[in-house]
Amino acid sequence: MNIAIVGVGYVGLVSGACFAELGSTVYCVDKNLQKIEALKRGEIPIYEPNLERLVAHNVQGGRLFFTDELSEVLDRVEIVFIAVGTPMASDGSADLSYVMSVAQTIGEHLNHYVLVVNKSTVPVGTAEQVRTTIRNALAKRGCETLRFDVASNPEFLKEGAAIEDFMKPDRVVVGTDSEQARELMTRLYKPMLLNNFRVLFMDIPSAELTKYAANAMLATRISFMNELANLCEKVGADISAIRAGIGSDARIGNRFLYAGCGYGGSCLPKDVSALIATARENNMSLQLLEAVQSVNQKQKGVLYEKFVSHYKGNVHGKRVAVWGLAFKPETDDLREAPALYLIDQLLEAGCHVRVYDPVAMPAARILFKDRIVYAQDIYETVEDASALFHVTEWKEFRMPDWERVRTLMKAPLLIDGRNVFDSSQLEGFYYLHIG
To answer: Mutual orientation of helices 239-247 and 204-235 as an angle, nearest 10°?
Structure first.
């Protein structure tokens, strides 16, 4: 099949490379000419394990192409995926301006039947807005009879495991109101699901809402555990033991039950806010999700509070170390990362901050410039530090030489925001964790 994917961000680039790997001819489109030229040179704008290899393999195989003009490839394709950004607007809703710009371009240049698929995370009703925008543009050209369909196909990719998620999905959600669209999407996904066709077809509004509902549920589980962890600290209970106790219940399961220093990233914060905004637009409130959002924001300050409490408020001028900047391991994504919130608090308090992250340092330099120090490894980070914050659970942080770390630090205070370390292995440290 020949397909176009508009937007070469995280979702678009991963999807394009994977569809090409499955034999489709894929045109990845983005208005950012600098990004397109870089991709043509083999430079990948995001960090995702194995993505660089996959892109190079399919470019060399003549299946993956990059262009800044959708109009140049529209006549060659059967399906157009819209995978542009839907950033959070000031009121918490999703900004659909990039989505509608793509729809406008399609309407201005469409000459044959295509299926337009919303891959971006968009609120209920977006497909109809896309349909209306295309129809209006066609009408201005006198092409009212030209057929097209619109469908919803939300993504469920986990950063750090996106290629595996795409190639071996636990489900593919497709919202459509057209039999032709259903047939096209079946043809597209059949090659990766030969033995177990896990495409869930449903109406378009349900598909649009499913992505938000999934992320809202995950966010709810995280905030619930963080609330419970804070209670554990008051009553002397152990959140890790509680997780084992409730996670073994088949009705609950053990996924996303880890207490920590709050969730971040490009999906959970934005999607929870957008879902709350959608409810508000429909004259109702989602009180549970509003609480989830509030708990998460407060949780991002927990590590700093533990630090200040330990030193009884006397933290000005102290040198501190931060292990991990990205919102999760195996990505360089800093969006809504708890580490950013922590660093801002530390700088505001007059601390000297030194950081290390295996892949997110270039992105951090853009944000913080010379306000913090960037270390070469985990040991340089902790030199002369009065506190070590563990914020992102990269594997290389799991088994350091703790004796060396303790010797290098001015004061052996370890504040673990991910509950990774074994206190029995931390002789000589003052160890604080969550719950």
So the answer is: 140
Stated pTM of the model: 0.91
Rg of the chain taking only CA atoms, in angstroms: 24
- 347 and 388 co-located in one domain: yes
- Do 323 and 294 lie in one domain? The reply is no
Q: How far apart are CA 218 and CA 268, in angstroms?
A: 8
Predicted local confidence at residue 404, as pLDDT: 98
Q: Which of 299, 328, 362 is the last residue of a domain?
A: 299
Domain hosting 86: range is 2-202
Do 76 and 51 fall within a single domain?
yes
pLDDT (0 to 100) of residue 188? 93
pLDDT digits (tens, 9 = 90+) for 208-229: 999 999 999 999 999 999 999 9
What is the number of residues in the chain? Answer: 435
Within 323-401, where are the H helices? 338-348, 361-368, 378-381
| CATH number of the domain encompassing residue 401 | 3.40.50.720
Please give the Cα distance from 423 to 5 (Å, whole number).
48
Reported as a pLDDT band with limits 50, 70 and 90, residue 114 is very high
Number of structural domains the chain divides into: 3
Residues 419 and 388 in one domain: yes
Residues 197 and 271 in one domain: no
Q: Which of 282, 299, 316 is the last residue of a domain?
A: 299
At residue 131, the pLDDT reads 98
Single-letter residue type at 103 = A
Please give the Cα distance from 239 to 418 (Å, whole number): 12
267 is catalytic: yes
- The active-site residue out of 18, 232, 261, 267 is 267
Give the strand pairing for 199-202 and 172-175: parallel
Do residues 197 and 225 share a domain? no
Rounded Cα–Cα distance for residues 215 and 220 (Å): 8
Q: Model confidence at 194, in pLDDT bands (50, 70, 90)?
A: low
Distance CA 159, CA 47 (A): 9
The two structure tokens encoding residue 158: 């986990």
CB 259 within 8 A of CB 434: yes
Q: Which amino acid is at 114?
A: V
One domain, residues 294 and 306: no
CA–CA gap between residue 222 and residue 228 (Å, rounded) = 10
